[in-house]
Amino acid sequence: MHPTLETPRLTLRPLVLQDLDAYVDFWQNPEVVRYITGTPISREQSWKRLLGTVGHWQLLGFGFFAIEEKASGRFIGEAGFQEMRRDLLPSIEGTLETGWGILPACQGKGYAREAVSGAMTWAKTAFPSLDYSCIIDPENRTSMQLAAKLGFTEDAMTTYSGKPIMVLRKARAG
Fold it and tell me: Helix H segments across 13-153?
């Protein structure tokens, strides 16, 4: 079952069909995708991402949360975990691959840290035996700094989809 989590300023909840338009706008924002896909993705690709998130929850019991700003009630991004079975060395399969993205207008307010911290607190109990990982474009200094604040450490510089990528890890709480 997909939990809904509360943090002081955010609600972390399941993505729902009614989020589609906001989700498409999110994934078509050049600043959001700058270090992820490099280019905005189509409505169809956004729909497939949304379905993949729902599928993660159904098959694995974890996935990404929609981030809703409590003050406005609007969708401002997503954060959580995935298992992408990436063709990546070193492998990160079997870990909670952690990720986040926030609309540019909401960046710099600590929302990503608050959301990821909330999700990781939940995961400590729900998946106590799994370590965390993330992959970040090394030019994305903001995400690299956030990962460090969350306790991730650099593990390896490698390539993914022909681009340099930093693999970071964080050991499980136990």
Answer: 20-27, 30-33, 43-60, 111-126, 141-149
Angstrom distance (rounded) from CA 59 to CA 32 = 27
110/131 Cα distance (integer angstroms): 24
Tell me: the pLDDT tens digits for 92-131?
A: 999 999 999 999 999 999 999 999 999 999 999 999 999 9
The residues near 149 (Cβ < 8 Å, ≥ 6 apart) are 113
Q: Which residues contact 113 (CB under 8 A, 6 or more apart)?
A: 146, 149, 150
Does 90 sit behind a cis peptide bond, omega within 30 degrees of 0 on the bond before it? Answer: yes
Q: What is the pTM of this model?
A: 0.96
- 5-130: CATH homologous superfamily? Gcn5-related N-acetyltransferase (GNAT) (3.40.630.30)
